Amino acid sequence: MTNAQPGATLAATALPTTMPAVIFRGEGVLSLEERPVPAITAPDDIVIKVGAVGICGSDLHALHTPPTHPGLPGVIFGHEFCGEIVATGPEARGLAVGDRVAVDQNPPCGRCGPCRDGNGNFCEPLFDNPHLDIPWPNTPGFFWDGGMAEYVKVPSYFAYRVGADVPWEHLVLAEPLGCVLNGIGKAGVAVGDRAVVLGGGPMGLLTVIALKHFGVEQVILVEPAVKRAEVARQAGADLVINPAAAGVREEVLAATGGRGATVVVEAVGNQLDTAVGVAADRARIVVLGINNSYRANLSAMTVTIKELRILGSFLMRYTMRESLDLIQSGELPLERVVSHVLPLSEVHHGISLARAGEGLKIVFKP
Ligand SMILES: [Zn+2]
Ligand SMILES: [Zn+2]
Predict the structure, then answer these.
(1) How far is the CA of 174 from the centre of ligand 2 (A)?
(2) What digits encode the pLDDT tens for the residues 296-314?
(3) Which of 116, 298, 346, 365 could form a disulfide with 342 if both were Cys (CB 3.0 to 4.6 A apart)?
(4) What does pTM read for this prediction?
(5) Which ligand is nearest to the CA of 117?
(6) Which domains does the chain have, with CATH numbers?
(7) 316 alpha carbon to ligand 2 midpoint, in Å?
(8) Angle in degrees, 0-180, between the axes of helices 174-187 and 320-329, rounded to the nearest 10
């Protein structure tokens, strides 16, 4: 087993018949099993040799008991992946064996009403999930076989071709970064903004990195974990506030001349009240975090009299290309985001690292 190097190609005939794969068993259980290598069945299919696959917060939610994210027992886990095409169906247009691709695991169909309205992240077929009675993205890795394996099969429109010189462990950040770009794009950030990011996990850290890349002068991160705070400083955060040690609102006001943040990005899921507390008049608050059990306690009058703009942001909204361009530019310190690169055989170790909040992005190379 070798990891494909940039520019390397693999002949389709070289595919083995079985492969190690991480199977989601439900009840918080993942098991490493031998599975058949996927074969082309639909004319638009492609088979990818996985270059890297990341652990996402949603994965941890699915592994929670009881689960706080839905998933179908028996499927191959992992939805953030990239790799090299090793087989294509006859109708997989524009892609060929040997192409390196990043995968959008929730792509718009392009044909439904929301897609035609320009709202691909509300794509009807995407949310028409045959396994659930609520609308929910029918994502590989949760409802059909995902990327925690040596090979994975997806329809070709999931894949974006990329250049040869980006490490797999950076390319695997394409979708999380695309979600961040969707969020901060809604806020319309400018150089003079004073930004506060709540939460220094992978999404919060990618937000800090993107805001600094776009020239935002002051980016303040709120994060209690010492290691994550340190990484965020190295990645460009101007100030990191430990919420366990200080009053977040007071610290933000002190750091912003008493004016508060013009942009706040909530990347935790249960910090909307804090976001409102640190917001300046007319601030834009972007809510990226997901937590179904949290209820905010915010004062509607505060929203009115401060003229706050609270902007929810879900999935990517045509931001995959921009994300890939940024990643391929090599200008983002993405090596700060990826804390661990492990072989797939260490999946349980990787999951416990992610659960402990020890590292940042944990990536496997099958
Ligand atoms: Zn994810
Ligand atoms: Zn659609």
Answers:
(1) 21
(2) 999 999 999 999 999 999 9
(3) 346
(4) 0.94
(5) 2
(6) 12-105+140-173+337-365 (3.90.180.10), 180-312 (3.40.50.720)
(7) 13
(8) 110
